[in-house]
Amino acid sequence: MAGIWIIAENREQTLELLRIGGELSTKTGTRLSVFLSQDRERARDYIECGADEVFILPPLTEDQSLDAYIPRIIVEAQQDVPDLILIPATARGKDMAARIAARIDTGLCSSCMALTFDDNHASFVMERLAYGGAAVQKVVCTTRPAMATIPPRTYEPADAVKGRQGQIINLPAHSPSTVKILEKKVKERESKDITESRLLVCVGRGVEKKEDVALARQLADVLHGELACTRPIAEEYHWLAEELCIGLSGAQVEPDLYLGLGVSGQVQHVTGFRNAKVIAAVNKDENAPIFKAADFGIVGDLYDVVPKLIAELKK
Amino acid sequence: MPAIIACFKWVVDEAYVRRMASGELDFSSVDYKIGEYDRNAIEEAVRLKETLGGSAIGITVSVPEATKGVKDALSRGCDQACFIADSSFGNLEPSQTAAILAEVIHSRIQSFDLIICGEGSSDLYAQQVGPRLSEKLGIPSVSFVQKLSIEGGKLLAERRVEEGIEVIAAPLPALVTVLPDINVPRIPGVKDTLMASKKPVVTIKKDELQPLGEACLQTLSITASRIERTCERFGTNAAEISRFVGSLRKTGVIR
Ligand SMILES: Cc1cc2nc3c(=O)[nH]c(=O)nc-3n(C[C@H](O)[C@H](O)[C@H](O)COP(=O)(O)OP(=O)(O)OC[C@H]3O[C@@H](n4cnc5c(N)ncnc54)[C@H](O)[C@@H]3O)c2cc1C
Ligand SMILES: Nc1ncnc2c1ncn2[C@@H]1O[C@H](COP(=O)(O)O)[C@@H](O)[C@H]1O
To answer: Which residue spans of chain A are classified as CATH 3.40.50.620?
Structure first.
């Protein structure tokens, strides 16, 4: 076995990949390697968290994105074919993973939510969602290396072992990509992390205008909860921040209570909170799919129901 | 005059996928559609050609029954379509789909300026075919684009990443995958549907292609995910609202 590789992007997710990568490398008796941009300090950090070796990629100029590393990683992967490559399922990670997989002609399990090693077949068995979350698809890669992108927070971060030793190897420079970054507009993160919230009030398209989000916020406040939303609210209307979107392409949450207001309950959204302890919803359409996914559903107009709920909860 | 290619997939409408008692998926009453986000890809290609001139070409790899989808793409404004059809193309893996698209685009379309893919297909949502296709064709690609233009023979794109937005320039020809908020897809009218029947469609059969490689990913199983909830209903009068809040309190999730 030639080992398990992790392509690092940010620290948080690299530690999560080190957790699963570490478990699998122990099980298969192979080396665990991390590919990292520039930072030697970070390399030592990753070694303490389980990496046996860290490959340091030369720094990128301002106008280059992570994809400039693709050619280098391909060369390395062709020389020393690893068994498994793990990449975080971030925007850049997903893009890089698919392009690397295409170049080395191998399979990639996108947004992998469970990953185990099957001793009998000496293969990695990976699980992902299909049909918007209506189904779970179990796959194996018939080619080497197997590849997977793993969504943030799928695994706990790896623990550090002080003084753990490993190798740090510098990789040579690469030619720059023709894709140039002209400008980076960094957005401030203005909202709470909804994956930490116990109670979520979710705004759907049944809320008619931006000002009315205040009504949902009042309800969230009396519940001591936070606001979340469906994808159209964040991406089409931009009423709430993208990181508040729950679902297949948004955040996966497990609150004590999910309360949807004017949410239809399409499978891609419901998938994001299916493990909530209690699911409740207000929708005026009695046939809305959300009612099949909810413990408690109020069939009614949210503009009528929400003020009543607030009053009742204040009692 | 640019030629712009929009890649779209004809998919099962996931809202109709049911769970059988055995846990298997039940496709007996499904309907099909052009993937949700692929409508944005088509719309963007059509808008670009409407402002820049040139042509928008819709392309799909699918089962022969997808003629309906091809017609839908033409109704949505594509000038012509390329339909790669075989009864075995219903369950392709992203590496195979990308290989077929690359071969056809390379050998049949040859000269193009931009390829537009959706952010992900509605059924697999692998988010792979676009970036894989760009590598197979050896052209630059930018994923998760929320805004784009062609200026001075270059692609300018706003790409959304976790920390914000990267404004990107790339030489053409290039490939982009677009986010759903890049545009609002038009709804074809009767006239569009009538016009669609007159537009050219090139159909390519499996035996005109290189032999298809094995799937890199082998699916061991697909099982329906389970949602089991009590599904209790409440009304909106005072008594019902108080019963609803009472039920929530009883579960212990609120005080
Ligand atoms: C590949 C893919 C990935 C996706 N990923 C996600 C994802 O991660 N997250 C996500 O949320 N979506 C996702 N979607 C989109 C998803 O399919 C739905 O389109 C979306 O969740 C619908 O949002 P909504 O419920 O707010 O709006 P709608 O579906 O428009 O529902 C609005 C609901 O409000 C009700 N309503 C209207 N007025 C009132 C009123 N006055 N009082 C009470 N109820 C009212 C209506 O009856 C309706 O049921 C994805 C789609 C695809 C294809
Ligand atoms: N069979 C297909 N035919 C044409 N384009 C496709 C096909 N499958 C996927 N695509 C394109 O690739 C994108 C990503 O698909 P996927 O990798 O399956 O999520 C889709 O949004 C489409 O634009």
So the answer is: 3-170
